[in-house]
Amino acid sequence: MALKKEEVYSQQLGKVSASQYAKFIVPSLLGIILFLIPVKVDGKVTIVLGVMADTLMAAIGSYIPAMMVGVLAIAAIGSLFAKIAQPSFINNRPMLKSLFQVEWLWVFLRVVGAVFAALTLFEMGPEAISSKFTGGTVLFDLIPVLTLWFFFAALCMPLLLEYGLMDFIGTLVRKIMYPLFKLPGRSSIDALASWMGSGTVGVLITTKQYEEGYYTQREAAVIATNFSVASIAFSLVIAKFIGIDHMFVPFYFTVVVAGVLTAIICPRIPPLSRKTDDYYGPVGKQIDEAVPQGVSSFQWGMQQAVEKASKADGPKIVVKKAIHNVLDIWLGLIPLVMALGTMALIVAEYTSVFTYLSYPFVPLLSLLQIPEAAEAAPAMIVGFADMFLPAVIGSGIESELTRFVIACMSLTQIIYMSEIGILLLKSKIPVSFLELFVIFLQRTLISLPIIALLAHVLI
Fold first, then answer.
1. Contacts of 137 (CB under 8 A, 6+ apart)
2. CA-to-CA distance for 455 and 6, rounded, in angstroms?
3. How many CB atoms lie within 10 A of CB 196?
4. What are 182-222's pLDDT values in tens digits?
5. CA-to-CA distance for 289 and 336, rounded, in angstroms?
6. Residue 10 — very low, low, confident or very high, per pLDDT cuts 50/70/90?
């Protein structure tokens, strides 16, 4: 008599040894503990990875800006030397070649980032670059946080990606994620890593998964632009700064509701809906979350996870890859954050570009009965430069309801060029600067009425 499919898979799982289960379960549990379990330390909700980053920040935080100026100088000089001299000791070593042999555009931005960082650190050159509101914000406030978060995230990320956890969770929640968001179930891990830890960590995970053949172009673009939300910890910082921390529960509830509804709508309209379902060329498709008929999601997920873990590289290779990821971020991404982030803040601080762009929001805010609409309008658009700028503008507004709306908007817009935007432009995910701006506007226009409605109800 032929065995049913579920009996076949049960037998296959029954043949899996304890050591094979352990290779999936132990690293995956460590990954969950580090990335996904919220912990409260000194009244601040974060994750274990965040505690590690904060601890190291307390110890060496004051030295990081100077250290990273040195790193940016190495990135700029090294990439210039590699492009011009074509030295064999770089070209013949895959790791060094991948770090320094980059396109001329990235070489230029590395040089600009290094120059901006040096001018800011030594308080030289034009004030527009070295001001505490432009280069100072990036070098002294943003880069230290990114440096340490990326250091620990890149080192520990294999625990989430390499040992079957994404495959197991993806299979279990696919029936929820696909109908709602047209995404594979494993994308829920990216979202959780963002909510509990950092939006930039969520993008890092998404980028890695795309480059390894687990997301299509459309899926990666959708996840990165809709699920890389700010963490609970940063949300509390925004709430305190803008003066609504006493309403944190309705505030974060509003952010979650608006974020989920926006994430349902955005993937169904251009430009995201026009992205192809092609996988990254060099690797091709590496995923199949569809559960065979007659097999339980748990059984299929467990089998997929154990198979993935059994194929994982040894500890030495995993550590080597993790170190390469850290160096790639420090040498390749941080210079772009310094260059493009400073440029974006210069535009925001020293020009009226964002003010002019915000004029159409004045009648919209008035229609939604948001007090001080003219004063609040720039906060609707300036977040494209940096996620903290709306809170800076909103902190001077008297109306509590308006400040509530601005704080919620600053967290649901997601596309900030000083962080998320630069990460995406640097990645292999096919999104352009113009597409990012369009998606930013879409998220703003979709989430604003939702947030305004909830604000009127809850306040």
1. 341, 345, 386, 388
2. 49
3. 23
4. 888 888 888 777 765 567 778 888 898 899 898 999 999 99
5. 35
6. low
Identify the sign of the CA torsion 176, 164, 31, 14: positive
236 C-beta neighbours (distance < 10 Å), count: 18
Confirm if 170 and 186 have CB atoms less than 8 A apart: yes
Tens-place pLDDT, residues 313-354: 888 888 888 888 889 889 988 998 899 889 888 988 899 898
DSSP string, 168-192: HHHHHHHHHHHHHHS--TTHHHHHH
User: Angle at the Cα of 246 (from 245 to 248), degrees rounded to 5?
Assistant: 60
The pLDDT tens digits for 133-182 are: 899 988 998 899 889 888 888 888 888 888 888 888 888 888 888 888 88
SS3 content of the chain, % helix, strand, coil (to 5): 75, 0, 25
Instruction: Give the residues across from 216 on adjacent strands.
Output: 279
Q: What is the rounded CA–CA span in Å between residue 109 and residue 408? A: 32
The total of other beta-carbon atoms located within 10 Å of residue 299's CB is 19
What is the spatial distance between Cα 438 and Cα 317, in angstroms, rounded to a whole number? 40
Model's pTM, two decimal places?
0.78
End-to-end distance of the chain based on CA atoms, in angstroms? 66
Residue 114 has pLDDT above 90, yes or no: yes
- DSSP helix/strand/coil, 279: strand
Asked if 186 contacts 289 with a C-beta cutoff of 8 angstroms, the reply is: yes
pLDDT at 3 over 60: no
